[in-house]
């Protein structure tokens, strides 16, 4: 039996089409991206997170000469947020990434597979979808309404 998976998403041609809170998240992720430590890949990623209390926190990727000891921006940010605010739900995550040298043709940069799985853990834990946005410096934005939309066959604690 063959089955199909469909993913709904929103596309924004640039950040001016975003709501005020989405624009704030975009700007915070862009700012965090500038402080990324990526001397090896030269691929800078920033992430911002909106918590249910309205607070916004951000982080970025941190590389290490001993690959793969570094950590992506999404996991750096979400792990810090979860460690410091374990009882607060994450409402939105915004990721902005791309090569250090800006290229206008860079498409929106989605989270890698490891980040998708890690983000899924928190969506499952809070039993509530997390809006996930991803972009590059050209300001095109893709929004999915749940992490599971990017990881439909996710692994969670129900398999253990």
TrEMBL record:
Family to which the UniProt record says this protein belongs: Belongs to the cytidine and deoxycytidylate deaminase family.
Taxonomy, superkingdom: Bacteria
SUPFAM superfamilies: Cytidine deaminase-like
Listed GO biological process terms: nucleobase-containing small molecule metabolic process; pyrimidine-containing compound metabolic process
Higher taxonomy: Bacteria, Pseudomonadati, Bacteroidota, Flavobacteriia, Flavobacteriales
NCBIfam families: PRK05578.1
Start and end residues of each CMP/dCMP-type deaminase domain: 20-158
Any GO CC annotation of this UniProt entry: cytosol
Protein's recorded name: Cytidine deaminase
A single MF term (Gene Ontology): zinc ion binding
């Amino acid at each position: 039996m063959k089955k199909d998976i469909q993913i709904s998403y929103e596309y924004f041609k640039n950040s001016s089409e975003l709501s005020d809170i989405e624009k704030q998240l975009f700007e915070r992720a862009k700012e965090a991206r500038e402080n990324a430590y990526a001397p090896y890949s030269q691929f800078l990623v920033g992430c911002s997170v909106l918590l249910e209390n309205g607070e916004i926190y951000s982080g970025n990727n941190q590389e290490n000469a001993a690959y793969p000891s570094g950590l992506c921006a999404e996991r750096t940010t979400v792990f810090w947020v979860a460690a410091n605010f374990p009882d607060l739900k994450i409402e939105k995550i915004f990721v902005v990434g791309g090569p250090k040298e800006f290229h206008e043709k860079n498409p929106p940069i989605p989270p890698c597979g490891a980040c998708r799985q890690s983000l899924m853990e928190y969506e499952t834990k809070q039993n509530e979808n997390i809006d996930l946005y991803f972009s590059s410096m050209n300001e095109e934005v893709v929004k999915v309404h749940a992490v599971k939309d990017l990881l439909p066959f996710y692994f969670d604690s129900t398999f253990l």
